[in-house]
Design brief:
The structure holds five protein chains of five kinds. Chain A is an alpha/beta fold. Chain A is built from twelve helices and ten strands. In chain A, the strands form two sheets. A seven-stranded mixed beta sheet of chain A has the order 5-4-6-7-8-9-10, sandwiched between helices. In chain A, β1, α3 and β2 form a beta-alpha-beta unit. Chain A starts with a helix and ends with a strand. The longest helix of chain B has 32 residues. Helices cover 73% and strands 3% of the residues of chain D. Chain D contains 14 helices and four strands. In chain D, the strands form two sheets. In chain D, strands 1-4 form a two-stranded antiparallel ribbon. A two-stranded antiparallel sheet of chain D has the order 2-3. The two termini of chain D are 12 Å apart. In chain E, β7, α7 and β8 form a beta-alpha-beta unit. Chain E is globular. Classes of the chains: A alpha/beta, B mainly alpha, C alpha/beta, D mainly alpha, E alpha/beta. At the C-E interface, α6, α7 and α8 of C face α7, α8, α10 and α11 of E. The structure holds adenosine-5'-triphosphate (ATP) (2 copies) and magnesium ion (MG) (2 copies). One magnesium ion binds next to α1 of chain E.
Chain lengths: 348, 296, 274, 346, 269
């Protein structure tokens, strides 16, 4: 994660920094523990007073939100795409470099609605983990499904690392959905679900969201990857056509991290965050404004139809503190890669 | 789900529960062995499972050794690790209060978890299926193959251990050494050996359970968490009862499956604990736990 | 002491041992005693004199309680056994019946005996539970009962039976009469004497019940504060006025048992030495 | 070097701080506590705040587990109860000096309820029962959204005293230090009286304690209540300190952290509680400092920090138990003995 | 001579084992009553039932004229029933002094709040207890030198004495002693016997005594109750009991004292 952001900063510094100023990157590990994340945050804020901060998780982002708005001096971001956080009013100094989880589900549902022909819309089931991450988009997604006329036939909650999913599959088997949207997991138990659904003779397409879409994750699914599809707001690194930034990343990593064969989603996310941070700072500096929270917020919201160099498919607007677009990819058994299954879809 | 009550679904959930209870019982067996041997709950059980799964993955998938050889190597390796742990940690702690030993196993769990994380990384790996996956169907009822086979495997292992502890001299000596090591010593029992054996057995049981669980899900450092869920089983059955582990394993299996089926996954993990609390109120030593004789 | 020694190496010879617990507390201070082969030797002494410690030192249990032999020698059948592990000593024929019985409470009587069979490992002898049941018919009736529910006397029988199953040539008995009813004490002592007679087992018998111990032992030692203060053949010891007064409970005039009511306050707390 | 003390009265014999020297040290410590935030930077003060909270929490657990022998694996959940109570009351306008004790009180009440089975359930069975409680309470924290904010967490309003908003670590430090000192002194006193003795008796052998006139039911409940009260206060303070809380904070990991602190420090001693809490709080920080230091040359070091932390945490605990089973307090005593006798004996 | 304690038809069983079967006896105020019987006869169980640790299946325990069968164990301790235990049950985590102070628990009143601040009342009653114990117990039993020692490491005989001290600190009306001289030699037995006699004679405390040392039992008790298999098989003065053939058959055996008779005669000559 921090590789992408850190590398971006270094790269940017070799290119002269932001408006002539160098970026200082400070990384600390929090072990994904909330209290540690908070103490790292406090420590870094106290010691370095940076204008921008990239935290580690949803829990951190939420816990720190209040403090951040009180401080009014730092713009924050994290790998969380939690729907609550794309909220310029209540969480003014936070943005995300992608669509919210709800928006991702919306993209999936739009795709489903689009692909079906007849009057009977395909049935959908949601399987999500009992975490904040998992629960986040579900109610919004159900509303979207209703709007699009897609019946939601089953909703299954599991614990994140569920071992035994036989009973859940038995339930799914009875509900007979055409699509199952998995959210709130990285990998397990998705493959087991897929395998068991197949063994039970179900003809259902499994779908996932951003963190289950990385190539390494899909590779780890093994045989279960077949038929897997899902939404990703970025390009894969093997897709450098029309994506000059991806080329830059590849060139850079080829030099800096020779052992890295493939640029993971995390990395792309970090890089993109770095780009946005820099863009915001640059806009502030150009307008000769101090790097205060409100100024940075304004700069952030002024980003519109901005070109990410192809990391995202469409031009980007950060008005809503998120990037509301993404594309459906499906696993291709021949190339063993995720290949685009749709064009870029924008959320409503 | 608004249709008339689906009896077949009920039967299916119950059956799935019974069969997956076998695996719970197997993991519980690992706990019970250590409890009988050392009088403590081994919180590192999940890490034994993890080690088993990772060793097996390494030898079978990465080194491409044949299945049986990988299995043998894995069990030997985990047993060796367990023996080492017994020697380095448990033996020096003999005689310390239970809570200290308990804490030591927690510390051990943390360290092992860290080691696995450091050596294999936090990534997920896909394990090849170990048990036949072909589903069993009984009319409308469908039960995943590996669930049934894991049940059979667990039943075999548990039976073997039960017979061993009841009838073999070493087994009886192990029980004796557990209940009073000093006396066992003066009767010619090599207590250190029996304690080492206890840990090695628990390691082997854990490793088998870990491989099975790993082959059913993917392999990640989260795998060890499965063991924590089994605490409900061992308490329900009684910490020191192998029979209790089996019965409670099946009960909890069915409860979990039914709650997952009818109440949803949110409560699935809570219901066993609620059940256990309620049962403890009535039977403070679980269903089959030996009542500690309290005399003045 | 030499008068107790017979030909050949003694079953047990303890020479000048010093024992320390936790590296600090010295309990034995140069204790010596000898158990001639085939004889019963009694070891007496007040509470905390170190009798149990002596037995633990012999059977190798000290390290289990953070104790250590700091000086001196222990010879068993002529071989030095200071540092031999307890289970190996048991397999070489030292049977220790610990103070307080210590039966395996959750095991049945039979299983208790099976567990004790470990002492025969490497000796090519078959365990003979039937022999034990012959000495202790009461145990046979309860052979499939859990030992925790046996009466105190039965537990003591089981504890002795267990040690006997290992075909010991030397038995260490630690207060076999502790907490037992007079009738049972009598029975147990009879059996101990019989085992000694019939199996030729040498015995070191620690007892508080001096009368009973002297009744079956040939030689006796009395220890205080970690060393032997008096020793001699039992028939001589019972005539010693101090022994009579302090261990057998005779009155001032040494002619009959004194009444407790006559014990005066000033008589409290006095010892042989110091 | 100090020579043996003679006591003129039983009262003097029973005093905690018997010698003038020890009283002097106490005063010095007190002043140091007061002045400390002026000398340290923000990060250190923040750390001190967390430390104070951990000391309170650990003291509660030590009363329950170390002194009374009731092993609890659910301490964190009671902190959660205190935290959510304080947050809820705070949102309704109650001042912090009421919400914090009330948070403790509600936790104590719940502790009473949880304590009821402890009369029959013992040892490891009780440990697992408290573990079950831990899971169940966290479940409640996650699901009872109207009070706890569910998985999204809850905001805790700023503490305010005489119109001053205690909105930074510097100010919170004094609040936390106040409660920590108060509760530690309370705990220390408790064990000079019949109640403390009853607790220890219950730990050592509860059934004989009962026959000696100790109402087991009442005292086990009391131990649970006091322990949970401390946890509740610690949780409430934590809420005010972080100003926002999610259920993820109060998981088993934290319960284990406290258990580790209590054991590493020394079961059944208050000094051990402090030492243990300090140790367990500082070690991860230190480790992180070391790693970021190393990271200057080997940037990858940061990536292995997480597993390293786990390994070090685990090995520390195991090492302590193996090499110093009586905890830090024993080391402390040895050091003190050394200086008492010095220079006459090394 | 009034009966301070009366046990009526107590019965108690554990699973299949009948530990007590219709046991009745009385103890006179200020006297020493001994309870003897073979191992497993139910003596300790009888004590446990009197002190409230076991709940008998049927029967009554009457103390000073009041039926206390339904009174909780800790309350019985408070109203004057104190005891020692067959297997020393001292609290190893406390010093000797604290162990003894624990005996005074029931008489103190401080609650958790006053205790935590060690305020007036709590402090005063602690001090009072301390001086009481020093005067009435520690000096009397001659254990002042070990006052501040931890229990572990104390010689067994001293541990038994500390247990007695703790029971005395309860200021009991009845003192129940479960095998106070087991494992002691003659000399130590004499010391303990002297203490027991002093407690009875000088303080007028009623003593119930379980003991296998017939020499001591027959010598110091004024009444002996014999149990066998949970039933009373005889009771009366030591002299009567010693001659009771059933008692001889079930318990005493050939020798009337814990003496092997042949030796006694030989030694006396
Ligand atoms: N494990 C131990 N650690 C420390 N001290 C011990 C230990 N075991 C015994 N002691 C001490 O050693 C001394 C002798 O104890 P030992 O048990 O050998 O005496 P004994 O003669 O058998 O007495 P008794 O008649 O009570 O059985 C006692 O003062 C006792 O406190
Ligand atoms: N808690 C218990 N659970 C089961 N059985 C018990 C319990 N307590 C006592 N017993 C049984 O009740 C019977 C009487 O035991 P008790 O301890 O009262 O005997 P005792 O007369 O004190 O014997 P001793 O002289 O050996 O101390 C025994 O058979 C014993 O096994
Ligand atoms: Mg002894
Ligand atoms: Mg008894």
């Amino acid at each position: 994660l921090h590789q992408g952001l850190g590398d971006y900063c270094e790269w940017r510094n070799t290119k002269g920094g932001i408006a002539g100023r160098k970026i200082k990157y400070i990384g600390e590990d929090s072990g994904y523990k909330m209290d540690q994340a908070m103490s790292v945050f406090k420590k870094i804020m106290g010691a370095h007073k940076p204008p921008v901060f990239y935290g580690d998780s949803t829990a951190w982002a939420k816990a720190s939100a209040k403090e951040v708005s009180q401080m009014g001096s730092v713009l924050t971001c994290s790998p969380s795409f939690s729907s609550d956080l794309a909220d310029p009013k209540n969480v003014p100094y936070y943005f995300m470099a992608g669509p919210t989880y709800a928006a991702m589900c919306e993209i999936l549902l739009q795709y489903i609605a689009r692909t079906s022909k007849g009057a009977n819309k395909p049935a959908v089931a949601f399987v999500y983990s009992d975490t904040e991450f998992g629960r986040d988009p579900i109610s919004a997604a159900k509303a979207t499904a209703q709007k699009l006329g897609i019946p939601v036939v089953m909703e299954i909650v599991t614990k994140p690392g569920a071992v035994d999913v036989s009973s859940e599959v038995a339930k799914l088997r009875r509900a007979k959905p055409d699509f199952v949207i998995f959210h709130g997991y990285v990998l397990a138990p998705i493959p087991e679900f897929i395998k068991q659904m197949r063994e039970a003779g179900m003809n259902t397409t499994p779908m996932g969201t951003i963190w289950s879409m990385d190539k390494t994750t899909v590779d780890a699914m093994g045989a279960a990857a077949e038929g897997w599809m899902g939404v990703l707001p970025y390009r894969y690194s093997y897709d450098t056509k029309d994506a000059p930034t991806m080329q830059i990343i590849k060139d850079y990593t080829a030099k800096a991290r020779p052992q890295m064969q493939y640029v993971p989603t995390f990395y792309t996310n970090g890089w993109l965050v770095g780009m946005i941070f820099s863009e915001v700072i640059e806009r502030c500096l150009k307008a000769n404004k101090a790097l205060t929270g409100p100024n940075m917020k304004a700069a952030l919201e002024s980003i519109n139809d901005w070109d990410t160099g192809g990391l995202t498919g469409l031009l980007v607007s950060l008005k809503g503190h998120q990037i509301g677009s993404g594309r459906i990819y499906a696993y291709d058994a021949k190339s063993k890669l995720m290949e685009p299954a749709s064009g870029w879809i924008k959320t409503a | 789900m608004n249709a008339p009550f689906d009896w077949i679904a009920l039967a299916e959930f119950a059956l799935i529960g019974v069969f997956s209870g076998g695996l719970l019982a197997l993991i519980a067996l690992g706990f019970v062995l250590i409890y009988k041997g050392t009088g403590v709950i081994n919180f590192a059980m999940g890490e034994f499972m993890m080690l088993g799964a990772y060793f097996f993955y390494t030898s079978h998938v990465m080194w491409k050794l044949p299945m049986w050889l990988s299995l043998a190597l894995t069990l030997a390796a985990v047993a060796a690790v367990a023996a080492l742990i017994e020697r380095a940690i448990l033996r020096p702690l003999a005689g310390q209060p239970v809570i200290s030993i308990l804490m030591a196993t927690i510390g051990l769990a943390s360290a092992l978890h860290g080691v696995v994380d450091a050596v294999w990384g936090g990534n997920n790996y896909e394990m090849p299926p170990l048990l036949p996956r072909k589903a069993f169907t009984f009319g409308e009822i469908l039960i995943p193959g590996q669930v049934v086979w894991s049940f059979i495997l667990a039943a075999l292992i548990i039976t073997a251990f039960t017979l061993y502890f009841r009838y073999s001299r070493t087994g009886i000596a192990m029980r004796a050494a557990a209940s009073d090591p000093m006396t066992a010593y003066v009767l010619g029992i090599d207590v250190r050996r029996t304690q080492r054996l206890t840990w090695m057995f628990a390691g082997v049981v854990g490793a088998v359970a870990g491989i099975v669980v790993g082959s059913m899900t993917s392999l990640s450092p989260a795998l060890g968490g499965a063991a924590l869920g089994v605490l409900a089983v061992i308490i329900l059955g009684g910490l020191d009862s192998i029979a209790g582990a089996i019965v409670a394993g099946l009960i909890i299996g069915v409860i979990e499956s039914l709650t997952a089926g009818y109440l949803g996954g949110k409560v699935r993990d809570i219901v066993p604990y609620v059940t256990v609390l309620l049962i403890l109120l009535v039977k403070p030593y679980g269903l089959f736990g030996t009542r500690q004789i309290e005399r003045l | 002491m030499s008068e107790a020694r017979t030909a050949g190496p003694a079953a047990l010879a303890v020479e000048n041992i010093e024992v320390v617990y936790h590296h600090t507390v010295q309990v034995l201070r140069g204790l010596s005693l000898t158990v001639p082969t085939g004889q019963i030797v009694a070891l007496l002494g007040s509470n905390g004199a170190g009798k149990t410690t002596t037995l633990k030192a012999i059977s190798g249990l000290l390290p289990m309680e953070v104790g250590a032999i700091r000086g001196g020698q222990i010879h068993y059948q002529g071989e030095r056994i200071n540092d031999v592990a307890p289970h190996l000593l048991a397999r070489r024929g030292i049977g220790h019946v610990r103070e307080g019985r210590h039966v395996f409470e959750d095991l049945t009587v039979d299983e208790n005996l099976i567990a004790a069979g470990s002492a025969l490992i490497g000796r090519n002898i078959k365990p003979e539970p039937e022999l034990i049941y012959e000495y202790f018919p009461r145990l046979k009736e309860r052979r499939s009962q859990v030992a925790g529910y046996l009466s105190g006397g039965e537990q003591q029988m089981l504890a002795i039976g267990r040690a006997l199953l290992g075909k010991p040539s030397l038995m260490l008995l630690d207060e076999p009469s502790l907490g037992l009813a007079p009738l049972v004490v009598e029975q147990i002592f009879e059996i101990i004497a019989r085992i000694n007679r019939e199996q030729g087992v040498s015995m070191l018998l620690v007892e508080q019940n001096a009368m009973a111990a002297f009744g079956i032992a040939q030689y006796g030692y009395i220890m205080e504060s970690g060393k032997v203060v008096i020793d001699g053949p039992t028939d001589k010891l019972v005539k010693d006025p101090d022994v009579q007064r302090f261990y057998l409970g005779y009155g001032e005039k040494s002619d009959a048992l004194a009444s407790f009511r006559d014990v005066k306050h000033y008589k409290r707390r006095k010892r042989w030495l110091s | 070097m100090r020579i043996r003390d003679f006591h003129q009265s039983y009262a003097h014999d029973e005093a905690i701080w018997q010698t003038p020297t020890s009283r002097l040290w106490l005063a010095a410590l007190f002043i140091a506590l007061l002045l400390f935030p002026f000398t340290a930077n923000g990060y250190i003060v923040g750390l001190a705040c967390v430390l104070g909270i951990h000391v309170i929490g650990a003291a509660g657990l030590n009363i329950m587990t170390g002194y009374t022998g009731l092993i609890s694996l659910g301490h964190a959940a009671f902190m959660g109860v205190g935290c959510y109570t304080a947050a809820w009351l705070g949102q309704r306008g109650l001042p912090f000096y009421l919400t914090i004790p009330l948070g403790g009180l509600v936790a104590a009440l719940l502790g009473l309820v949880v304590g009821i089975p402890s009369l029959r359930i013992k040892g490891l069975y009780l440990a697992v029962a408290t573990l079950a409680m831990q899971f169940i309470l966290v479940f409640v924290f996650r699901e009872w959204e109207s009070v706890t904010g569910g998985v999204r967490g809850v905001n805790v309003p700023n503490a305010e005293l005489f119109g001053i908003e205690l909105n930074n670590d510097f100010r919170m430090y004094y609040v936390i230090a106040f409660f920590a000192v108060l509760l530690l002194v309370g705990a220390r006193n408790l064990f000079r009286t019949r109640i403390g003795r009853a607790f220890i008796a219950i730990r050592d052998k509860d059934i004989s304690a009962e026959v000696l006139g100790i109402n087991l039911f009442r005292y086990k409940l009391l131990a649970f209540a006091i322990g949970s009260f401390y946890a509740g206060v610690a949780g409430a303070l934590l809420g005010y300190f972080y100003r926002a809380m999610t259920p993820e904070y109060f998981t088993l990991t934290l319960s284990i952290f406290y258990l580790a602190a209590v054991i590493v420090g020394g079961l059944g001693t208050m000094l051990g509680t402090i030492l243990g809490a300090v140790f367990m709080t500082l070690v991860p920080e230190l480790l992180r400092a070391v790693v970021s230091f190393i990271a200057q040359w080997a940037p990858r070091a940061v990536e292995v920090l997480s597993p390293m932390q786990e390994i070090v945490f685990g090995l520390l605990i195991v090492g302590f138990l193996v090499f110093e089973p009586h905890g830090l307090v024993e080391i402390w005593r040895r050091v003190r003995r050394f200086f008492h006798l010095w220079p006459f004996r090394a | 001579m009034t009966d301070i304690l009366q046990v009526d038809n107590l019965s108690l069983s554990f699973g299949g084992i009948r530990a007590l079967n219709d046991v009745s006896f009385t103890a006179s105020k200020g006297e020493i009553t001994a309870i003897i019987g073979p191992n497993g006869a139910g003596k300790t169980s009888l004590f446990n039932s009197i002190s409230g640790f076991y709940k008998p299946d049927s029967g009554r325990v009457v103390f000073e004229g009041a039926d206390i069968s339904r009174v909780a164990a800790h309350r019985r301790a408070e109203i004057g029933l104190a005891r020692t235990f067959q297997n020393v049950a001292l609290f190893r985590g406390m010093t000797v002094l604290d162990n003894i102070k624990l005996g005074g628990h029931g008489r103190l009143k401080s609650n958790a709040l006053s205790a935590m601040w060690y305020l007036g009342s709590a402090r005063r009653e602690e001090m009072q207890l301390r001086s009481e114990i020093e005067r009435d117990v520690i000096d009397f039993l001659e254990i002042d030198h070990i006052r501040n020692q931890p229990i572990s490491g104390l010689a067994y005989g001293l541990q038994k004495r500390v247990e007695l001290a703790r029971a005395l600190a309860m200021q009991p009306k009845i003192l129940m002693l479960d095998e106070p001289v087991a494992g002691m030699n003659r000399e130590e037995t004499e010391d303990m016997a002297r203490f027991i006699l002093d407690i009875q004679e000088e303080r007028g405390i009623t003593v119930l005594l379980i003991e296998h040392d017939m020499g001591m039992v027959m010598d110091i008790s004024s009444k002996v109750v014999v149990l066998n298999f949970g039933e009373v098989i005889g009771s009366g003065t030591p002299h009567d009991v010693r001659a009771n053939p059933e008692v001889i058959r079930a318990y005493l055996g050939g020798g009337h004292d814990k003496v092997v008779p042949t030796l006694t005669e030989e030694a006396a000559t």
